[in-house]
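Example record

One chain of 321 residues, shown exactly as stored in the release files.
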Amino acid sequence: MAPYLDPTNQAVVNAGAKAGGPKLYELSFVEAREALEGAQKHTPATDIVTEEISVTVDVAPGKKSTVKTIIYKPAKGIVGESAGTVFFFHGGGWILGSPKTHDRLVRDLVRESGLPIVFPYYTPAPDAQYPIQFEENYGVLKHVVEHGAEHGLNTGKIAFVGDSVGGNMAIAMSALTAERHGPRPVFQVLFYPVTDTLREFDTYKEFKHGPGLELATLMWMVHAFLPVSDDRAGHIASPLLSHTEQLVRQPPTLLITAGVDPLRTQGEEFAHALQQVGVPTAVFRADGQVHDFVMLNAVATNPTAVATIELAALKLRKALG
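Predicted structure tokens for this chain:
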């Protein structure tokens, strides 16, 4: 029996099947990036303003990266003078994703929450590989927290948001800030996160051929970012493998999975692991939704996608307001 998709998601899946063409993993990395950016092309809403900065960070001994970073704010002003700052870590399987692909989603979150969002555009894989992207994001986080006032940001309180592999990045930033005594988040929102790059799960088989994200695409992405299998066994790349003393350092969490998604089981298992060690964690499954449902512009007006963003924004506002 085919999995249930609501009408919006079914229409998107049908349109993709009708269009045909090669699978994402059959394209070159550049072609795959162009395909997603083309699908996500839109006219940015003018009620949100942006500032672009460049942050140079240390990513390895003797090696630096310059990370393009976008700061989003409501044009009418942040919700309150004491409101904190959100850091958004984007998905796209480490290979894809950019300010262009996630612009609408980030603007929607800014609009609904009234909060500023900082968006680091880390180097896509395989142009860089594990652990460079983690170090880039951590470097941007540390820099912006230290220099936030220069950009009209209150970074005394911060929160993290991430979608898919960006959820993996957000969890990793929570872990690294605890381990390195860095700026700690008071809350995190995880949309259908990658939490285990090492093991297989029942939903890998259930949704091997989609609809939406296919297992072959997921594996293509994992191998591009984590070519060394031993690296996948660590708690940074696979936070579901974290020990109790690592899990308890995670902040209060809202985690939302997609009902039709090979990542569903590992996302929900991570939420359950957090709950079991006492981290305040709410977990919801968005029925009838494919992977990436909050990011895809074609699904943006879907009631479930809208409600998901509204809930995330509400929780962020309560945590940082």
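Notes: The mean pLDDT is 97.
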